[in-house]
Amino acid sequence: MNGIYKLSNPVKHYDWGSPESIPSLLNITNPEKKPYAEMWMGNMSLTDGTALDEIIKESPDFFLGPEVNRRYAGSLPYLFKLLAAEKPLSIQVHPNLEQANAGFARENARHIPLESAERTYKDANHKPEIICALTDYDALCGFRTKCEIQNMFRAFNCPALENFLELFNKDNKEDPLKLLMKKVFSLSDTIKEEIEIYIKENITNLCTLAPQYASVWNIINLFAQIYPHDAAIISPLYMNHIKLKPEEAIYLPAGVPHCYIHGFGVELMANSDNVIRGGLTAKFIDTKELFNIVNFHEFTPPIIKPDNTNVYAYKTEAKEFSLSVIQNTKETMRLPVLGPVILVVTRGTCTVSHAGGTLNLNQGESAFLAAGIENGNVELCGAFTVYAAGVP
Description:
alpha+beta
């Protein structure tokens, strides 16, 4: 059995995607300026016209390794993506494993079709994820501290929101973050319109009077232009604005609300499609389930910054996946990642060699490496940057 397969990957053309980032990496033209939002590398990828999950079924112990095959019932446990956001994605949160199991069973019992717009749980799995920047990358992730939130609302100084500060009164028995979210979702159309008008009329003054928050004001203004009448346009007041430089990453566990605003990166996650939306979308929002899933705690995801070594593994608590970046100049090196592995080349050319053969990968190309190949016998050669997904 060969054990190394070049992949042909499906591309998702969601309207928030960039018309340039993925085509540029793949070295293809895009004269129609079609949005290229995501490229998926995983079970649905093709190799010689056959889906990867079908190949894995032929010999799961060889392709996944006996332990991974046992733990994940013969399926590749992760999904690897290129993600290119030209416009902001929706605010979303993902369930933990127990919540996903319960939610999937509950919606099955209610006979909600999997393709229904009102279906929240598409499977019984959780979806922890890591996003690693290939370019400068902006995101909202987790709740600010209560003190920061109050300062943000004071600086924003919108008359329609002045009573929000009362939520942080110590006499309130309910968590102020939960009260805040409830209030956001209960804003009337009249109040939302007042907020939009305030943003339009005051964005320049806000940047002058509180320049330390200029990036926040600009994001709020952007949201108001793209998602008018959506209460979540004020989410930057209560969510952390995270800015990543290339090769920096953040890991998002279950329950953390987040929104990818702009940038190009690699994303790696447990193999699930469970998304609970929380604003900045025209799609269905299951408000009740959202409040069940969100962790109403102050949380700023630490930025994971690689060191100067040629191999860096991004440390997370995930059991389904591990992400590494591998840089090389020209010499031959051993593959340092445990299988089953998917490699994607983001710079240069990488030659993958083992006893069964050799595969050349150019920028934008990817490959699957079976766990049955002894890692010590796989060599990488060339001048390249490669991102590698594996299983810890």
